[in-house]
Design goal:
With 265 residues, this protein is of the alpha/beta class. It is 40% helix and 14% strand. Strand 4, helix 7 and strand 5 form a beta-alpha-beta unit. Bound molecules: NADPH dihydro-nicotinamide-adenine-dinucleotide phosphate (NDP). The site of NADPH dihydro-nicotinamide-adenine-dinucleotide phosphate has 25 residues, from helix 10.
Length: 265
């Protein structure tokens, strides 16, 4: 990535990312800082716009529109979640499609539904990159995704579908969840509950991708949505937390930002 950024630099282009953070959610602050640090390491300029949690939706939309017009900014990232008084769809809609490096605007998501995405959610892209990197066959496999959020579950499910998996999406109203997870050749967990999925919920030999990143109730090191010690006994492949999907998400953000800079040439 550093080399790509240097090559662009020779053409007079320095990729830049604007991160918009609304409020003081401690996890969001940590994530944004990790993303900024990663940008700096490869030579991408990063700007942080940190707004108070009581900002109005109009103020946030206005800022995004201004960033959208700036030629020196290639990518715009809105750190999720937004405060509850904001309509996410309205805010994400303000990102120009060519700068939507986290693929969350209605247009980007719609293009993903059509199977012709430009930018895809960095977490979803990171999951697919991991599967591809380890030559894990997706086509024809039973894939089960736990979670249907706009940022993680839905885009992952859509990408798996695009790669010709048979996809089941589970959520809080799903009946007999564990019957479904035990059918999965590929199990992607984005439920937001610490160590929720355990070895006994997993088919022998399954590929388990843990998107979670949770503070355990009693404190201590962050853990995933999967109970790693029991799950690794069953899985043929499993992503660790930390060190699995999280760093991939950041890597995909850098990749998408560079892509948006290349498109701007
Ligand atoms: P959300 O809280 O937005 O979504 C959680 C999903 O899980 C919802 O669809 C919910 O269903 C479903 N769910 C909740 N309880 C159950 C249950 N008992 N059984 C089945 N489904 C259930 O979380 P996110 O999608 O934002 O994040 C998911 C996880 O991924 C979190 O741990 C988060 O920290 C992590 N994350 C990691 C990132 C990374 O870079 N690695 C980036 C973003 C998130 P319903 O829709 O019905 O409410």
């Amino acid at each position: 990535m550093k080399l790509k950024v240097q090559e662009l630099g020779k053409k007079g282009i320095v990729p830049s990312l604007a991160a918009v953070l609304v409020g003081d959610d401690p996890s969001s602050i940590v994530y944004v800082n990790m993303k900024r640090k990663a940008c700096e390491e490869v030579g991408i300029i990063s700007h942080l716009y940190h707004l108070p949690s009581l900002s109005s939706e109009e103020e946030v939309v206005e800022l995004i529109k201004r960033l959208g017009e700036r030629e020196d900014i290639n990518g715009i990232l809105i750190q999720h979640p937004l405060p509850p008084h904001m309509d996410e769809m309205s805010v994400f809609s303000a990102i120009p499609p060519e700068k939507d490096v986290d693929g969350l605007s209605p247009l980007s998501l719609g293009k993903l539904v059509f199977g012709r995405p430009t930018f895809v959610s960095c977490t979803a892209l990171g999951v697919i990159e991991l599967l591809n990197h380890y030559n894990i066959q997706i086509e024809g496999k039973e894939a089960v995704v736990i979670g249907r959020s706009i940022i993680v579950g839905k885009p992952i499910a859509l990408l798996l579908l695009q790669y010709n998996a048979t996809v089941t999406i589970c959520h809080s109203r799903t009946q007999n969840l564990w019957e479904k997870t035990k059918q999965a050749d590929i199990l992607v967990v984005a439920v937001g509950k610490a160590e929720y999925v355990r070895g006994e919920h997993i088919k022998e030999g399954a590929v388990v991708v843990d998107c979670g990143y949770n503070r355990p109730p009693g404190g201590g090191k962050n853990v995933g949505d999967v109970h790693f010690p029991s799950a690794q006994e069953k899985a043929s492949y499993i992503t660790p937390v930390p060190g699995g999907v999280g760093p991939m998400t950041i890597a995909m953000l850098l990749k998408n930002t560079v892509k948006s800079a290349e498109v701007s040439i």
